[in-house]
Amino acid sequence: MKTLYWTTVIAGVLTAGCRAEPRAHIGVVVSGSVETAARIAAEDYCEDGVIALRFSPVSGAQPVQEAVAAADHYADDPDIWIVVGHANSGASIAAARIYEPAGLPQLAPTTTAPAYSEVGENMFRLVPDDRVQARFLARIIQRDTGAFVVAYVNDDYGRALLAELGRALGAAPPSIAFSDNVDADDVAPLADHIISASPRRLVWLGRMYPLSELLPRLRQSIPGLQLIGSDGIDAPRLTTNTDGEYTGVRFVRMVDPTAPGEAIERVRTRLTTAGMATGGEALLVYDAVGLACQALADGARSRSAVRSYLNSLGHKREAFTGATGAVVFDSTHSVPREPYLGVITTAGSVTLPRDSIR
C-alpha cells in the first residue's frame, strides 16, 4: 500500500521572530491521538512566523513497515533536517537504522529500548532508557508482597524491558509473552495463562491493548489482583477511567502531567482547549516539536547542525526548558529523568510522591 505524505504549515508568515528558513522542515511521525500536541507546539514556538511540519500518517500501533516507509521518505528528502517520532521502540529502532546513514537526527519522545541509542549518533530521546524504568519497577516489586507474574509484549519494547527487569531483580522473573496485535479472540487464552499462574500481582510490560480487554476477566477470576503497568499504558484511556474499570491500577510515568508550574499549566490549558487529555505522551511530543522548532529558530541550518545543537544543550548553550522540564542529553543521548508512579482512582489519575515509593 502506498503511504501518502503531506505538509502542514502553521498559520502565519515567516518573520524575523522565527528565523527558520522555509526549506527547513520537521518530519513528524506520531500517533494521531497526540498529533494536535505537535501542531500546538509549532504554533507556540514559532508564533510570529511559519514552521513547516510534515506529518506521516500512521496507525495507532505504528508497525515497523509504516516506520520504514516514513523513514525512507524523510531520509531521502534534503529539506527534512530533523524527525520527531516514532511512537514506540520497535518503530523507532527500525526508522533509526535508516536515518543514521542519512545523517538525519531523530528525536523520539517516548522510546525507551536501550538498543535505540546504540544505532548511532543521530538518535536522541526525551526519556531515559529501560534500565532506569526496570530499576524503578524492581523497587516496587520487591517492596510489595505476594506472588507475581510478568506479562510482556513480545517486541523490542517488551523484551528489552523484561531483560532489564531481570537484571534489576537479580533473577529472571516468571513471565508470559503476548503479541501486540492480539485480537479479541486471543484475549481468553492469554487470560487463562495468567490465571493459571495464580498471581496476586501482575506486572504488565505492554500497552493499553489488550489490557483493556483482559483486565475484567482477570479481576473476575482473581479478586484483589494488583496490577502495575510500565510506561506503555500511560494513555488517556487509562487515566480518564470514565467507567471505573482501571481503579487501583498503578503504572510508570516518565513525566508527571499533574505537576505544578506555569509552563506545564499553560500547555495543559492549550491541550484541553483543543479537546485533548493531558497525558505524558502528549507533553513529550509537545516538547520534542518545540525543541526541534527552537533548534531551527536558533540558526541550525543542516542535519549536522541540528545534531550539534542538540548535543550542545546544557553545555555550550542553556538547556531547553519545556513543559516537562529541562532537556539535556546524557552520553546515551537520553534525557535523564526519575520515573513517577501513577495510580488510578475513581476520580482519575494521581501521581504519588517519590518519597512514598523509595
Descriptive tags:
358 residues, alpha/beta, seven-stranded mixed β-sheet, six-stranded mixed β-sheet, 12 helices, 15 strands, 18% strand
If you had to describe this structure to a student in words, what would you say it looks like?
The protein is of the alpha/beta class. The protein has twelve helices and 15 strands. It has helices spanning 35-45, 64-75, 89-99, 115-118, 130-143, 156-169, 184-196, 208-221, 236-240, 262-273, 280-297, 303-312; strands spanning 6-9, 25-29, 52-55, 80-85, 106-108, 123-125, 148-153, 175-178, 201-205, 226-229, 250-253, 320-322, 325-327, 340-345, 348-351. The strands form three sheets. Strands 8-7-9-10-11-14-15 form a seven-stranded mixed beta sheet, sandwiched between helices. A six-stranded mixed beta sheet has the order 1-3-2-4-5-6, sandwiched between helices. Helix 1 runs parallel beside helix 11 (280-297) and helix 7 crosses helix 8 (208-221). The longest helix has 18 residues, at 280-297.
Question: What is the secondary structure topology, with strand pairs?
Answer:
Elements: E1 6-9, E2 25-29, H1 35-45, E3 52-55, H2 64-75, E4 80-85, H3 89-99, E5 106-108, H4 115-118, E6 123-125, H5 130-143, E7 148-153, H6 156-169, E8 175-178, H7 184-196, E9 201-205, H8 208-221, E10 226-229, H9 236-240, E11 250-253, H10 262-273, H11 280-297, H12 303-312, E12 320-322, E13 325-327, E14 340-345, E15 348-351
Parallel strand pairs: 2-3, 2-4, 4-5, 5-6, 7-8, 7-9, 9-10, 10-11
Antiparallel strand pairs: 1-3, 11-14, 12-13, 14-15
Helix pairs in contact: 1-11, 2-3, 5-6, 7-8
